[in-house]
Amino acid sequence: MNNKIKKTFSDRCFNLINTLIMLAIAFIMIYPVYYVIIASISNAEKLVSFKGILFRPLAPTLLAYEQAFKNPMLLRSYANTIFVVVVGTMVSMIFTILGAYVLSRNNARLVKPAMIMVTITMFFSGGMIPFYFAVRDLGLDGSLWALIFPSAINTFNLIIMKTAFMAVPSSLEESANIDGAGHFTILLRIILPVSKSVLAVIALYYAVARWNAWFGAMLFLEERESYPLQLILREILIQNDMSNVSEGVASAELGFISVTIKYAIIVIATVPILCVYPFVQKYFTKGVLIGSVKG
Amino acid sequence: MLVKTKMTKESKGLLEWRKDFKRNWSLYLMFLPVLLFYILFCYKPMYGALIAFKNYTPKLGFMGSPWAGFENFRMFFDSPDFIRVFFNTIKISCASLLFSFPLPIILALLINEIRNKRFKKFVQTASYLPHFISLVVICGMIKTFVASDGFVGYFVNQLGGTSGSLLQQEDKFLPIYIISGIWQTIGWDSIIYLAALSGVDVEQYEAAEIDGAGRFRKMFSITLPSISNTIIILFILAVGKIMNVGYEKIILLYNPTIYNVSDVISSYTYRMGFETQNWGYSSAVGLFNSVINLVLLLMTNRISNKYAGMGLW
Amino acid sequence: MKLKNKKIMTLFALTVLIAAFGLTGCDTADEAANTDGERKLTYWTSLTSTASSLVTNLGDTPMMQKAQEMTGIDVEFIHPPQGQVNEKFNILIASGEYPDIIQYRWTSYPGGPQKAINEKIIVDLNTLKEDAPNFFSYLEKHDEVRKLSLTDSGALFSFPFIRGDESLLYSSGLIIRQDWLDELGLAMPETIEEWETVLTAFRDKKNCKAPLSMNIGHFGQVHAFAGAYGVGIGYYLDNGQVKYGMAEDGYKDFLTLLNKWYDEGLLDQDFSTLDSTTMDANILNGNAGVVQGSIGNGIGRYMNAAPDDTYQLAGAPYPVRNKGEVCEFGAMNTIIPLMNNAFAAISADSKNQQLAAQFLDFGYSQEGQMLYNFGIEGESYEMIDGYPTYTDLITNNPEGLSMSSALSMYTYAYDAGPTIQDKRYMEQYASLPEQKEAWATWSTSNMANHLLPYLYVKDDEVNELANLSNSVETYANEMTTKLIMGIEPLENYDSIVEELNNRGLGRILEMKQAAYERYLNK
């Protein structure tokens, strides 16, 4: 009895402290994002001259959003990004699932060399210029496919997925093997259904990486019409950085609205991917296991 | 006699290969697109890393540029920057590994202990938010916060009796870099552990509870071991990337007073390539970096295989 | 089960096919090769942020459409993403395939523009003299422009952006809160002592945290305060000698002054990390009383954002030692400014070199200059008494565009391009009385005697100079900041100068001096 009370007491303490820590963390994490949002609907001049911690928008206005949507590239780049994210994530998932499945079959003789081949690429790369040539030689440069295929597999994700596939109890597979099922059947019927959580996580990783990617676009694209959102976002972010117009009068009367436009664009660029997350999140709790087999 | 055994051995090996192919041909076929990807986008450019041994001139192209032997490497080792960027890189990445690696695990464990489902989801969602803010913005925020009148800068200066922005003080750069890094990635990095934790068998907890195990006991004896595989794999991968300190954040944060502590290999490579078009030299530095990474990876994997019984391969 | 397998197999085969198609197929359009008679060019240039918020391509602006119509040449513009201009340029160069015209800050090409010509990346324009009569006749008439444009070997690498009048060379300086001066009954400071009084008053009476809010770069741009001690910041000319400020007499006094001001809280406590955005904020919210800025981007922008009606700024004269003196140093540009878009070069591979030269030459013709400075007559400007006056479309845009945005659609003058900038543009652009006054104030200095032209160093010296400068300047920057902040005691100044010399300052000055003499003899 005594023991039990003690336990619940320490339990309560733990819960309390844990909750407090979590609240603190949540605040630290949320505030900057909150700041970006309220800054985006604040009056630009007031915002620039404000110092300190902001809790409420200053003279709320949607002017920044109006201005942001005036940018001829915003919607266009949005469409480009969505295309790259949707098609790119699909391509990535197909490639990664195939690779991970094959690499998780230890009993085939070529798997180990393949694994080494894959791992090496995480540490050696030819550098940017050779990479650029490789893509250009395939005739991919200038098209959105250059943002999809050359980055189809992230070896890190591949290894995570492979580890998860390996953790699927072999008893499940054996039963299928007895039925004489081929590799595709095993993959589709047995492995994938029990690996939903890892699939969701990896798909999220890919989608977010593609959503945020800009370097490849900078490298391979020529036409502004095909720029993804992040490249436009970066352009706007540096717009108010006067270091590049130190010579004098360029972009003068722009005023300070560009500061709030900057925040508005961040909101516009971030919200969609934030909205996707909660839908994926449920798999983390529902899903099965990832490398959680003991030993 | 001797010849005969050798023959049989060889044909036996061949036979086994044939058997392997017969059994696994569909498996190898599945790997084909993956193989194609790695050859076209990883190994083909990797051949291009030979640029490090060349004196690259754009007009002559990759093949036509004259060989330079180890000249580019020699130049790097001789340069006064070498010691500085090398040790800065090691310092920053070791600190990252020490702090940024374990913290997401702890966060995942703590989140896992939250009973209230909605609160749990809220904390989880909040924790990954910073991941989505662009680095340019984050660095802008850091600068404001650690300025002499920024709220972090003000308190630290009061406590330490210093003055001016914290970014003007050599000894503050590393903490600023690490802490802001943790802030940005801790939530995102914990996702993978949370996913792993979601698979832990509830029955085990119940059994432990009957045994009278407390919260911490359970955490250490059930939760942690159940995600140890994930931790080990991620640790090996992290060690293998130890020399990769991203240049972008460094470039956005540094200023003349702290050059000494903030210049790293990647920012150096970046400058050499993009600012002076010294592609050969830049690749040589990059290659040097990769070799160190690979050696570290092999070592960790070896150690892990020996002591933890598992590794990448 | 078997049937299913087959289906999956087909699906898989399809994936592979799609992948293979994606990887090898989908050939993009090859570079537009000109067939005979087609007058078409490709033109690589950065699109300014002002313009890019309105159009996606320079070719879409009324100015460029008119230019294409007037020259009868089709131009396809290729733009690097802003903020990635240098990266993209370097990739472009490394790729080995170039458009007809590349407009970039060629003076920063590693190894100098002459090296780009030697490497057969761009062409020596002297070979295209016949196709660019306007430009070459301008060069003949303007010796300084000619000297600035020619490399040591006499090669001409670009069609540059030229400031057409001396008054256009002065556009920035110190900006001070005039309303505070009036309120405190202080006169515009001239001598160092007066400046100190003013800054102290700002600190004590206006409660301002950073009376003087500038970073090292800002000081360097205007040479302010150092000028009072008879030294410039960085490299400059003194009686025909190339000098480096930090190693000269007087620089120590300048540093002593800033160190004192830093200690007393007159100089921004965060000056080493200060960025332009924070500086903007400081001058607007009363954290600062003095900043550095330009006519449009500084005074114009701040006045537009003025927090209240009493807010008043003025351009301050450069501080001097004794009252009534004219400062030896100040902010000044060279006639050909070293800007991103200031140099249009023609690639050596181009099959349309003559056409490209013709198109670029248009900017130096009478019609071209009018178009690039004022836009289209009857649309963006009207001739009133022989003076090209911007219409309401520019000055008071019906769609609410700011003047610089509207200008970016019709002119090059707001930025840079292959043309000659007209004084009459600036006269209208600096429309506020504060701007006009500041323009006059800032033009008063003897900087013209000290301004170094862009120097072409010898090919074999390029690498040496780059390495030495990098080492010397990084060290100098670091030490300047530390001396001002007191991290490094001022007693060490002499040993720091010694270290500068050890790092090769003497050799740098020697190379620069030689280059300067070659410049004089061109």
Automatic annotation (TrEMBL), chain A:
PANTHER family: ABC TRANSPORTER PERMEASE PROTEIN MG189-RELATED-RELATED, POLYGALACTURONAN_RHAMNOGALACTURONAN TRANSPORT SYSTEM PERMEASE PROTEIN YTCP. Residues 78-267 form the ABC transmembrane type-1 domain. The keyword Cell membrane applies. The keyword Transmembrane applies. One of its GO terms (biological process) is transmembrane transport. It comes from the Bacteria. InterPro entries: MetI-like (IPR000515), MetI-like_sf (IPR035906). This is Carbohydrate ABC transporter permease. The chain crosses the membrane at residues 20-41, 82-103, 115-133, 145-165, 186-208, 261-280. One of its GO terms (cellular component) is plasma membrane. Keywords: Cell membrane, Membrane, Transmembrane, Transmembrane helix, Transport. Its main location: membrane. It comes from Ructibacterium gallinarum.
From TrEMBL, chain C:
Pfam families: SBP_bac_1. SUPFAM superfamilies: Periplasmic binding protein-like II (SSF53850). InterPro entries: Bact_solute-bd_prot1, SBP. Keywords: Cell membrane, Lipoprotein, Membrane, Palmitate, Signal. Residues 1-29 form the signal peptide. This is Extracellular solute-binding protein. It comes from Ructibacterium gallinarum.
